[in-house]
Amino acid sequence: MSRKWVEEESRQWVERGIITEEQRRQIAELYPYKRSIGEKLPVFGALLVGAGILTFVASNWSAIPQLFRLLLIVLTMSGFYVFGYRNEERGAKAFGISLLALGVITFGAGIFLTGQMFHLIAYDARAFIIWSLPAILLAWMYRGRLLYFLALVILNAGQLYSAISFQQFSWLLLVLLLIGAGGYALQNRQRVIFTALTPSILLHGLLYLIVENQAIGWLILMSAILYAVLDWLSDRQARIAGQLGTLISAFFLDVFFIFFLGEMNNEQAPLAATFFILFAGAFVLSYLGKRKHSEALTLVEWTIFLPFFYWKAGGDVMYLLILFVFSGYLLWIGHREEWSSKVNAGTLLFLFSTFVGYIQVAWGFLPKSLFFLVGGLLLFVLNAFLQRQRHKRLRDEGKGGSQV
């Protein structure tokens, strides 16, 4: 519930003598105001100013003497760090964190510009490894989500760069992700942090499979194991948020199988015996964790991990069915638990599932104009249905509030 809704409803409770004005104030204090866009303006302003400075320097880089280039990098980076530290100490946390983030960005730009200046050639991702260290360190020091997300971007970009440019997988980047970013997530246990962490881990897993020419189906097993491990987290919100990121990643992997399963041969599937032994072990681990937290009902989420890629003839149809089952489940459980992020995710995934199914069924035999026309009408119908469900939920919440 929002602070505004509580304040409006609680006035009626005071008028009807259910609670006193002092109790109303205490209840309202339990629901803090959401941060307004005005509080985020310094962050965007600092990012734009930093981008302008870096763009100006890059465009005039060749005209600047080498000594002044080095001084410019050091002074700019130091300035961002010093002013960021001072603002954070004075209480302007958002502005200070944004300046520290610009210091990290400038440090990374300095690494690559210095390498270009002295014609240094790298044959691995060590530049990104060095770049990620201050981002991780500052995220731990200042507990800034912006710094945490910046560290994730650097680590993921470094692994992508290593895989694409050198056909190598950097184990050190993975270690930094698990210990640096993963440790930070375990310490802070915020939903958005865990939701972003798990897809990053799976991205590294995907790149490992690509570099080592392994079957993409192993990524389903990685997702299942990660999901099972998260079942043992004691913090419920962090556990659900991390698993939501894992489930959504597996959802889009299922979409991949829908379109490309027919083009895969038996050699591109994981070794069945090894896969099913590990899969069964992960399921048992997950079941024990869910039983410990009295959440056995959520075992239905394991449907998204089912390895239908072994079933060449009807695997794509089963995956399409799973998309609808899973997105419908998210909608249902989100309404049941009044968890807006699950409702929103379920709504978007249900729409996406419908779109995927429509492409699979209709693209081959409908005229293209009719294809888009029917697709648009279908989206209008789905939107009307979801809006109706939303209004019904709001009415139910209003009735529940009036009965307090």
TrEMBL record:
Write out the entry's keywords from A to Z: Membrane, Transmembrane, Transmembrane helix
Keyword Membrane attached:
yes
- Which Pfam families does this one have? DUF2157
Q: Where is the DUF2157 domain?
A: 12-147
Q: Where are the transmembrane segments?
A: 41-61, 67-83, 95-114, 120-139, 146-163, 169-186, 193-210, 216-233, 240-262, 268-288, 295-311, 317-333, 345-363, 369-386
Q: Give the domain of life.
A: Bacteria
Q: What is this protein called?
A: DUF2157 domain-containing protein
